[in-house]
Amino acid sequence: SQRERARRGSRDSDLGDWGAASMARGTGEGKSGVSSRRPVPACVIPVPFQHRSFPIVASMQRGVTLIEMLIAIMLAGLLAALAIPGLRALHDRLAVEAATQAILTAHTRARLVAVTERRVAVLTLTLDSIVVRAIETPTDTTPRWRGPGPAAQDVAIAGVPRSVSFAPSGVTMGIANATYVLTRGGARKQVVVSRYGRVRVQ
165, 121 in Cβ contact below 8 A? Predict the structure, then answer.
């Protein structure tokens, strides 16, 4: 009816006025149309990071001067001069120990050949070689083992050439006692063989 239409129209107009007033309050505008909010300060735009070359980085990137290179070479030479004598002494000591061990092994091997083959075994020591032979007949000897002498290690030895005979029982025959002195540089070893063929190192 017309009355209901008029009622709806007035209600819609009231809602429209209320929405407009709410929007005006939200935006801060009054009846004069001027905003009542405080001005927002402009955002500070960060300046892009600029790489700065610090003194440490600059010093690391520069080249090496001639004086610095000479100092490094002098230090390396000084360290080498201090280390070389120690290395040389160690090398001499190892060489003498290796030659000494070869003599000990040769005596043990000659004794084993005599016992196992039940023959007379002869050990011959020279500067260049160490040889173990088995006597099969009075006029025939057969090599059973051969190894390098102390000269292979650049080691000098006193008391050679010399031959030691081992009986089938493993005991030496004749004059078997001997002393061998092995030297190289400042390293020195002494091998003493008793009349029974026993060997010890001094």
Answer: yes
